[in-house]
Structures are given as structure tokens and as C-alpha cells.
Automatic annotation (TrEMBL):
This is Alanine racemase. Belongs to the alanine racemase family. Its EC number is 5.1.1.1. Pathway: Cell wall biogenesis; peptidoglycan biosynthesis; Amino-acid biosynthesis; D-alanine biosynthesis; D-alanine from L-alanine: step 1/1. The keyword DNA damage does not apply. The modification N6-(pyridoxal phosphate)lysine is found at residue 35. The gene is alr. The active site is at 35 (proton acceptor), 257 (proton acceptor). It comes from Dyella lipolytica. It catalyses: L-alanine = D-alanine. Residues 236-360 form the Alanine racemase C-terminal domain. PANTHER family: ALANINE RACEMASE (PTHR30511), ALANINE RACEMASE, BIOSYNTHETIC (PTHR30511:SF4). One of its GO terms (molecular function) is alanine racemase activity. The keyword Isomerase applies. Catalyzes the interconversion of L-alanine and D-alanine. May also act on other amino acids.
Length: 362
């Protein structure tokens, strides 16, 4: 147990972040995006923490909707990719899930849907420029009319689009996507939803009736050079382990696999019990900060499966058994992500099964 890497999920931070999103997005309603096991924080755990506080949950797949219903959640749940096959529709009706509808194939399945199981609530997804999912803007009015006449569908049809780079606050592409969405949905009835986390911060025009926030809920940022804390959010995950060895290694010796890092002098090298087998990124560069006790020290050498090596020259008080924090409120995961060539979301989503999850109210 002492060698276990621990992900501590801060339930108070989740609740704080949701409140902060509400303030920023008001009067819009908030869909708490809990796809990918709540960005690696644990679907049921996060949903329990936010029960009653979020206006709806958003998930990627029917299976996650089923998990939330099984856990007893009664809120609206929006399945962001909608049905993947015809049979999913009856299941979504049974579970009372909202379906995003983005493709002609789904329209065909829906046209054969009977209203007897209750009317399915749908969100029509328009591709305003990201070119992943959605109907072409020119098709929006026609598809909306088609959906509105289907007996198995709730006539209050939501209108949705997704941004490709809303974290670029002065970018032309988001401006253009907002414009295209507005034109495509002009005169159509129904609630509008455009904004993901970054758009809530940077694109007030996109807040509309519902925002769909994931990253910010967990205190994460995708804005270059900024952490969630810079916007008033609190990190909802601390990843920690222990220091299990300190060795004095001589000048000119090389550390770890392939000897990527050479000791410039005789020096103390710390070894912490975490590696890519836990989800700490193998691509983390030498110099990535790691907290030992109350101090940040640089990672040195290559991240291995179970272990990392640390330069302890500036931490003379460090001792075996000390707590080591890889990221958390005192060490933004965005910094580790930037040093690893990825984004914070990728890291929190990447926790492996051997990581022990615990909760606190912080
Ligand atoms: C993941 C996702 C979101 C949430 O994005 P964040 O950047 O995490 O806020 C919103 N909408 C859709 C369609 C998504 O797939």
C-alpha cells in the first residue's frame, strides 16, 4: 500500500468550480460534462458531488448515461454523440436520456421511433466549422422541420454546435463559427448551446441558453500559459506518491534508461514511486517540476514504468518516505502537460487502474 500512487479527488473543488461556472455563464444553464469517466476523476463520484447543482450531465455514450441512471441520478443527461445504432433509441427513451442528433443515419432511425415509450428529447448538432460531428448549416432548417414532425420526438428541439479553438480568445475561427451557427439557426425555436469551457471564459456571445463545461469543472485550463487557478478555479485532482530512495550519484554518471541525463557534480538523486504505468506521462521532459515536501524539484532522466528520478540538490531536507506530488492545487497539471507536449485533460484522463482513488472535501 505504501508504494501506491494516489489520486485524491477534491469534492469541494468540484462544487466550487460549478458555482464559479454559474457566475460566469449566468443566466445560462450548466451542463456538467462528465464524459471519459469525468475526465479521469470518476463518473459516479463526480456526479454524486454535483447532484442537484448541475442542470444536466453530458456524457459521450449511452453506456455512461446508463451508469448515471443506475447510480440514481434523475437529472437530464445529454448523450453528446447520440445513438450509435438504431437499437440505442429505445434504450435512450427507456432511460430518459437526451440525444444529440448529428447525422442522416440517426434521422432515419428516429423516423421509425414510436412515441409509446415517451418522447425522446433531442439536440440537433450543427457543424459550424469544426468538421467533426454535425449537420451542414444549410441543412439545419430542413432537419429541424423533419425532427419537429416526428411523433416520437419532443418538439422542443435543442440547437447545438461545438468550437474547434475557443481557447484562442481573439481567433477568427470561433467568431466565424458563432456567426454561422447564428445564421443557420435563425428563426428556429429551441434552446441554444455553443460554449465549452474556454468559450465561457473568452466568448461571451456564445453563452446562449446552455453552456457545456468539462475542463473548468475539474479546475483545468486549455488556455495557453494559464492554469485553472488563473481563472478562479480549483484543481479537483492531486496525484501523489512517496519518495522511496535517495542515492548519491557521482559527477559524470548518467541517470535512468538510455542515460539521458548526466550528473554535473556529485549529487543526491531521489526516486519516487510513480511512472507511466500510473499515467504519469513518459514524455515529461527533464526539468518538469515535481513537489517533494514543500519544494519543487526538477525531474531528471527518463520516466520509467514505475519510477521517476529527481534532482534533489535544492532539497537537502528531503528524506525517504516524503510525500511527492506530481500535480494538484500547488502544482498545476497544465505545467506538467506543457512539459510533456500535451494538454491537462490528457493527463487526468490517463490514470491507470493501479492508481488508488480517494476523496476529500477540500
Ligand atoms: C467535451 C465536450 C465539451 C466540454 O469541453 P470542455 O473544453 O472540457 O469544456 C462540450 N461539448 C462537447 C460536444 C464536447 O464533446
Amino acid at each position: 500500500m505504501s508504494r501506491t500512487t494516489v489520486a485524491t479527488i477534491h469534492l469541494g473543488a468540484l462544487r466550487h468550480n460549478l458555482e464559479r461556472i454559474r457566475e460566469l455563464a449566468a443566466p445560462a444553464k450548466v451542463m456538467a460534462v462528465v464524459k471519459a469517466d469525468a475526465y479521469g476523476h470518476g463518473l459516479e463520484r463526480v456526479a454524486r458531488a454535483l447532484d442537484g447543482a448541475a442542470d444536466a450531465f453530458a456524457v459521450a455514450s449511452l453506456g455512461d448515461g446508463l451508469r448515471l441512471r443506475a447510480a440514481g441520478h434523475r437529472q437530464r443527461i445529454v448523450v453528446l454523440s447520440g445513438p450509435d445504432q438504431a437499437g440505442d433509441i429505445a434504450e435512450m427513451q427507456r432511460l430518459g436520456l437526451d440525444a444529440a442528433i448529428h447525422h442522416e443515419s440517426q434521422l432515419h432511425w428516429l423516423s421509425e421511433t414510436s412515441p409509446t415509450r415517451g418522447r425522446l428529447r433531442v439536440w440537433m448538432k450543427i457543424d459550424s466549422g469544426m468538421h467533426r460531428l454535425g449537420f451542414a448549416p444549410e441543412r439545419a432548417a430542413t432537419v429541424h422541420a423533419q425532427l419537429a414532425t416526428m411523433p416520437g420526438i419532443d418538439p422542443d428541439i435543442g440547437l447545438m454546435t461545438h468550437f474547434a479553438e475557443s481557447e484562442v480568445f481573439d481567433g477568427e475561427r470561433t467568431r466565424q463559427q458563432i456567426e454561422r451557427f447564428r445564421n443557420a439557426t435563425y428563426g428556429l425555436s429551441g434552446p441554444r448551446s455553443l460554449a465549452n469551457s474556454a468559450a465561457v471564459l473568452g466568448w461571451p456571445d456564445a453563452r446562449a441558453d446552455w453552456v457545456r463545461t468539462g475542463g473548468m469543472l475539474y479546475g483545468l485550463s486549455v488556455v495557453d500559459g494559464k492554469s485553472g487557478a488563473d481563472f478562479g478555479f480549483r484543481a479537483a485532482m492531486t496525484l501523489s506518491t512517496r519518495l522511496i530512495a535517495i542515492n548519491t550519484i557521482g559527477r559524470g554518471e548518467r541517470i535512468g534508461y538510455n542515460g539521458l541525463w548526466e550528473c554535473p557534480e556529485d549529487m543526491p538523486v531521489g526516486v519516487a514511486a510513480v511512472g507511466y504505468g500510473d499515467g504519469y506521462p513518459r514524455s515529461a521532459a527533464a526539468g518538469t517540476p515535481v513537489r517533494v515536501g514543500n519544494r519543487c524539484v526538477p525531474l531528471i532522466g527518463r520516466v520509467s514504468m514505475d519510477l521517476i528520478t529527481l534532482d534533489l540538490r535544492d532539497a537537502p531536507e528531503a528524506k525517504v518516505g516524503d510525500r511527492v506530488v506530481l500535480w494538484g492545487p500547488e502544482l498545476p497539471v497544465e505545467i506538467v502537460a506543457a512539459q510533456s507536449g500535451t494538454i491537462s485533460y490528457d493527463l487526468t484522463c490517463g490514470m491507470t487502474r493501479r492508481v488508488l482513488f480517494v476523496e476529500d472535501d477540500a
